[in-house]
Amino acid sequence: MDYQSIITEIAGELEQIPKQGELAVYIPELAKVDPNKFALNIHTIEYQDYNFGDVDDRFSIQSISKVFALTKAYMIHGSDLWKRVGVEPSGNPFNSLVQLEYENGIPRNPFINAGALVIADILCDSLEHPKEDMISFVRKLSGNNSINYNIKVAESEKNMGYNNAAQINLMKSFGNINNDIEYVLDFYYHLCSIEMSVKELSKSFMLYVNHGVLMPENERLLNYSRSKRMNALMQTCGFYDEAGQFSFKVGLPGKSGVGGGIVAIYPEKYSVAVWSPLLNKKGNSFLGMKALEMLTTKTRLSIF
Ligand code: GLN
Fold it and tell me: Which end of the chain is more exposed for a tag (fewer CB within 10 A), N or C?
């Protein structure tokens, strides 16, 4: 497969599309990002890398970090997690509060904000140094020790974090949060503020391409069943109320973030990360979605 020609062709076609979408202005630091940035990286199971654009620039991974947090919590607690968070698509925006009250403070899934806050609470209970331990984990998955939190982004989100504060307070009132609310929120905002490049993101998602085995160390982190379930959750819940569209148009398990990044995987073949900061109305990268749709159509490599 000539991935390099295909991604160059995709980039050319994307240039013809009028720019649409908005930066994630509700996090003031993210409103400062250059909206014209674009990067795409494919990492294959054969350790080949294919690149286009600003592939070494690090950006705010935001909700993509929810996959790393869930992985860590799943490794520690296994299926006990599902007592506190569901595995159904929400059909609602990532920050919606409406279902939470109806469903007694049990979030629909770990990839909406409420679900990720419960996972953050669980990690606060089980990790001695949550921030240090999680950044080490992400460094290990990506094989890069310089990956870090962006404290300014974390602070910026905290200062405007009324919605997340509402979510966690509501869940605490239902008894689904154990720790101090400020402690969990601070940890959650730090996770969202992690900065990575598309190269580092696709490399770290090789874990899910490779059925839970970290390459090239050959270390199993998730058993086959858990790895299958991680991919299923990315497929059904990775794009909030656009998960159906993403399956329909792209057809890969994946996860997006309001920093404009999207990572998707094809089991046993490749992982792909794309970054374009302008977001559609559902909070997913406008050009990122288009790029991945073109990729799976041109390569005929969607899981469907
Ligand atoms: N930090 C963001 C928030 O909590 C993450 C949302 C996202 O990337 N979809 O709102």
Answer: C
